[in-house]
Amino acid sequence: MGLFAKIKSGLKKTRQGMSNSVRRMLHSFTKIDEDLFEELEELLVMGDVGVSTSEHICDELRKKVKERGIKDPNAIFDLLRETVAEMLSGGEELHISTKPSMILVIGVNGVGKTTTIGKLAALLKNQGKKVIMGAADTFRAAAIEQLQVWADRAGCDLIKQDFGSDPAAVVYDTISAAKARGDDVILCDTAGRLHTKKNLMEELAKINRVIDRELPEADKEVLLVLDATTGQNGINQAREFKNAAGITGIVLTKLDGTAKGGVVLSVRETLGIPVKFIGVGEQLDDLQPFDAEDFARALFDRDPSEYQDLEGKDA
């Protein structure tokens, strides 16, 4: 299965929910008016796009309709895809040009953080990068064990210490090993405990001091893993972590298991943080680099087989 096919398949539930509803609604209108935009905004909110983001999208659509003199309500669907792609574009690429570069991964328990790290390691290896992993979430013995399993699957070395060890010491050991072995990317798990935010901030500050001292010129990404099935609750998590950890990008997991894929838009618009990867399945290669055009095209696809309930009208 190709990259776009994976993304399209992963967004099927969202597309058949929100996008199908939008197309049905547009087919029911004979002209473009405020009633249409009000219904569209409501459908976007129900798709977990968020209130303010839905308002912004509809404002952009109003401008485009007026500027281009569009009269056909069904033309709104393609305008919506275009607007979504524009909103999501920019900043989605990883900045890892130095050798080594550092990627810190954070997120609360249960969002798929450890799995994401393993998949990201495999993805980077397939791009020809030499990757080393650090198990710096030392507060959960299971996290270290799970990361070892994923390191083995991805074929990467893992640097770890005993349960309860100092996370910053693990990061230091991983950096030292990366320098000695000539690795391209250091990929470190970190603990994410929102209920003890003060400790989290102190821990991340200590880790960052070690990185700044040992790799002063290195590129560094701080990726927050969010579970797409939590919808708008994920936005609240992201806001807390953004304030505590200087997030540079979002990894949105479990998109294939939810109809709430519209949360991608809310993350970008509300927090100003780019989505860098999306998870669209359970396989090792189901973590995909985020592409705004592909995402918008997959979300608002014109596959007739998925729109057979539009009263026989051409989908």
Main beta-sheet annotation: 8 strands, mixed
| Estimated structural class | alpha/beta
Oligomer: single chain
Question: Major sheet: order of its strands?
Answer: 3-2-4-1-5-6-7-8
User: Helicity, in percent?
Assistant: 40-55%
Shape: elongated
Average predicted confidence as pLDDT: 87
Distance between the termini: 24 Å
Percentage of β-strand residues: 5-15%
Number of strands: 8
Unreliable spans are 310-315
Give a description of the structure.
This protein has helices at 3-10, 12-27, 34-46, 51-68, 76-88, 113-126, 141-154, 167-181, 197-214, 232-245, 263-271, 292-299, and strands at 101-106, 131-136, 157-159, 185-190, 220-227, 249-253, 275-279, 287-289. It has twelve helices and eight strands. It has an eight-stranded mixed beta sheet, with helices on both faces. With 315 residues, it is an alpha/beta fold. Helix 8 (167-181) packs parallel to helix 9.
Topology:
Layout: H1 3-10, H2 12-27, H3 34-46, H4 51-68, H5 76-88, E1 101-106, H6 113-126, E2 131-136, H7 141-154, E3 157-159, H8 167-181, E4 185-190, H9 197-214, E5 220-227, H10 232-245, E6 249-253, H11 263-271, E7 275-279, E8 287-289, H12 292-299
Parallel strand pairs: 1-4, 1-5, 2-3, 2-4, 5-6, 6-7
Antiparallel strand pairs: 7-8
Helix pairs in contact: 1-12, 2-3, 3-4, 4-5, 5-12, 6-7, 8-9, 10-11
